[in-house]
Amino acid sequence: MKASDVGSMRERVTIQAQTQTINDAGEIATLWSDVGTCWARIKPVKAVQVALAGRDDAVREYDMTIRFRTDVSTNSQIIWRERRFDVQSVVDNTEQRQFLTARLREINA
Q1: Contacts of 8 (CB under 8 A, 6+ apart)
Q2: Which of 52, 54, 60, 94 could make an S-S bridge to 47, C-beta 3.0–4.6 Å?
Q3: What's the whole-model pTM score?
Q4: What pLDDT shows up at residue 88?
Q5: 3-state class of 93 per DSSP?
Q6: Which CATH superfamily is domain 3-107 in?
Q7: Is-contact 61 47, C-beta < 8 A?
Q8: Contact criterion met (CB below 8 Å) for 19 and 49
């Protein structure tokens, strides 16, 4: 993505980070907290039906492009239009710290 394409980032997304704590029952609980909100370009990549845990689920993948930031990783999740996406990979395509492209996955959409 070029700097001149920044106008294509029209979707508002929230980046969340994962924290693990031990709950009252002594079990590990995963909590998600907001790290930040930014503008993004979201582009569908593929959708497939897969069998997970004995049932058919829809798996959709998207590419999300945002301005460069250091708090997005494969341990993050993205909230977009009240939907939750797991981050599968994060790439600084030009390695110039301008933009990041993250592959997102949504299961059972």
Answers
A1: 1, 41
A2: 60
A3: 0.84
A4: 97
A5: coil
A6: Bacteriophage SPP1 head-tail adaptor protein (2.40.10.270)
A7: yes
A8: no
For 4, list phi and psi in degrees, rounded to 5: -70, -15
Per-residue pLDDT tens digits for 68-108: 999 999 999 999 999 999 999 999 988 999 999 999 999 77
Please say whether the beta carbons of 67 and 8 come within 8 A. Answer: no
b/e sequence 27-57, b meaning 16+ C-beta within 10 Å: eeeeeeeeeeebebbbeeeeeeeeeeeeeee
Sketch the domain layout of the chain as residue ranges.
3-107
Tell me if 56 sits within 8 A of 102, measured CB to CB.
no
